[in-house]
Prior knowledge:
The protein is an all-alpha fold. Helices cover 75% and strands 0% of the residues. Helix 1 packs across helix 3 (40-59), helix 1 (7-21) packs antiparallel against helix 7 (127-142) and helix 5 (82-101) runs antiparallel to helix 6 (105-123). The longest helix has 20 residues, at 40-59. The radius of gyration is 15 Å and the shape is globular.
Amino acid sequence: MEIQLTDDEHLRALAALEAVAGKDDDALAVLAGGAGERPLPALLAAYGQHTLHRILISAFGIDATTDYDENGRLLSEINSDPMARIVFLLTDALHNQAALAGDDPATAKRIARSILLAIHAFTDADNNDALTLLRALRNEVLGVG
């Protein structure tokens, strides 16, 4: 089951990924969160699951125009694909790591690196391309063209 994220959580997770990609530990520390906010490791694990599942869905050609039958066939294909299974395993491992971490910033950084590496594996994006992708994802949340 995928954890739902608010727009603010999406933006906070994206900012944390940018901080890790840019090696900005000070910015990452600011994003650690406070009372009432999800701990950063848990937030990043949830965001990683959300993003990697979106990448899988896109890679398999599922979009808003896919009809019900085709959608079912493609989802069955995803569930039987070895690469997809590795993504599911990775996201489960990130959630388990986050559950043990609490608010630990070092674990948040490790989870963020794993997400960035996974994005790189699917997109062949280098660090600069990853930052461009993260900005595009932020603009999507903000509704900016």
